[in-house]
Write a structure and sequence with these properties.
The chain has helices spanning about 1-15, 70, 75-80, 95-120, 120-135; strands at about 30-35, 40-45, 50-55, 55-60, 85-95. With about 170 residues, it is of the alpha+beta class.
Length: about 170
Amino acid sequence: FFFFFFFFCKHWITLKNPVTMSTIKPDQKIMTFGRKKQAVAVVTCSKGRGFIRVNGKPINLIQPKTFTLKLLEPILLVGKTKFREIDIRIKVRGGGQTSQIYAIRQALAKGLVSYYQKYVDEASKIEIKDALLSYDRTLLVADPRQREPKKFGGHGARARRTKSYR
């Protein structure tokens, strides 16, 4: 009975006050990505309370711990105040541990820049972008190098077997 009552009230209110497209407020959301070798990190930035999660875990719980400082570089360069009103969700897959860390940090930096460009203002976006580029260009620009595939007749991509005459 209660289920029916709540269901009826909910629909009765919507029938009474029809929602038009002009009354719906668009969700402030940005999706960008970061890449390193085979690792791809996709970041979703939305208006929120400053949570940063990587594959559902808080950013400070990411393993290995030796890469924590590398992972937090965009946050430390720009300042925590810029991240205060943004929730960031990152999904990363492919590659190894190091490649994933570099893909995450690139996605984090690119996501912040594009969020500020679209929803805040151009001046603060330029300030953030200049700070990131002056520290490390790979925070915003992807490194296109990939592993070269192994070929026949040798041990690796370029190395050949040593010719022996005896």
